[in-house]
Every structure is written in structure tokens, then in C-alpha cells.
Design brief:
The chain is mainly beta and 147 residues long. 0% of the residues lie in helices and 61% in strands. It has a ten-stranded antiparallel β-sheet with strand order 6-5-4-3-2-1-10-9-8-7, with no helix packed on it.
């Protein structure tokens, strides 16, 4: 995981000038979550919206028991060398660099999130998460395609 940096580019906060520009817009999302703890499969279908300062996702999460409306939101800050992804309360989640394939790690209390991002070009990308903790053990794979 890249090291912490406090310096910001003069265009920070205006990611449309930086590395985020090719990904601005609306994306169709499909995610499969293999819950190893509960021995179940969960799916998500929806849309993601990327702006210069925010990533927002809305859709339906399906399990054997129910279908729930789901959403998540992250703040985006285009720093000197990385795109900083932050939780809504502005705490840092992860940093993404410029490579086509990225490894990221996030510790959340006793839970460990290990992720991979695969940037296939301006019209498709994917993310994979392996999450392990006292009450979590799952693998998540999401595919994003330009809407």
C-alpha cells in the first residue's frame, strides 16, 4: 500500500483534470459475494456514479432470504501520487495509484480487507476483495461497465 502523503497537487479536488477523468460518469455494476462463514452467495446489481469528488453506488442486494436496496458512498481526493478513497466521515479507506492492476489493504478493527483493482480501460474495470475477521470471511468480485 502506498505511503501516506500530505502534499496535494494544485488541482487536487478537481479530479476531472487528473487520473479520475476517464472514469467519470455512470457505470453498471454486478457483484458476487461468496460468504465462506455462512456458506452462501450474495449478489448485487446496480449503478455507480463517479464525480470528481465522489463515488456513489446504488442497487439491489440478493440473498437466499431477501432482496434489499443497498448503497455506499466514498469521497474521492486526487492527491499528489494517489487517488485517496475516503469514507463519508473523511477517514481514509484506501489509496489507488496509476497502474492497471492495484493491490490495496485496509485494516478495520479486527477485520482485514485485501483488495485488487483491475483497470481495463475507460469502459470497464473490476475490484476484488478478500475480507477476513472474527465475524467475516468472504470474497467479493465486482465488474463495472460504462452505462
Amino acid at each position: 500500500m502506498p505511503t501516506q502523503r500530505s502534499a496535494r497537487r494544485p488541482d487536487a479536488g478537481n479530479s476531472s483534470i487528473g487520473r479520475l477523468k476517464p472514469y467519470l460518469g455512470t457505470w453498471d455494476v454486478r457483484r458476487r459475494i461468496i460468504d465462506r462463514l455462512n456458506h452462501s452467495l450474495v449478489t448485487f446489481e446496480g449503478q455507480a456514479f463517479v464525480t470528481p469528488v465522489q463515488f456513489e453506488e446504488h442497487g439491489d442486494t440478493h440473498s437466499d432470504h431477501a432482496t434489499l436496496r443497498s448503497s455506499r458512498t466514498y469521497r474521492l481526493d486526487d492527491a499528489v501520487e494517489d487517488l485517496v478513497v475516503r469514507f463519508p466521515g473523511l477517514a481514509e479507506f484506501i489509496r489507488i495509484g496509476d497502474g492497471a492492476s492495484q493491490h490495496v489493504v485496509h485494516h478495520c478493527g479486527p477485520d482485514l480487507y485485501r483488495g485488487r483493482f483491475f483497470f481495463r480501460g475507460p469502459d470497464a474495470w473490476a475490484e476484488m476483495w478478500h475480507v477476513r475477521g472474527p465475524r467475516k470471511h468472504y470474497l467479493s468480485l465486482a465488474h463495472y461497465r460504462r452505462a
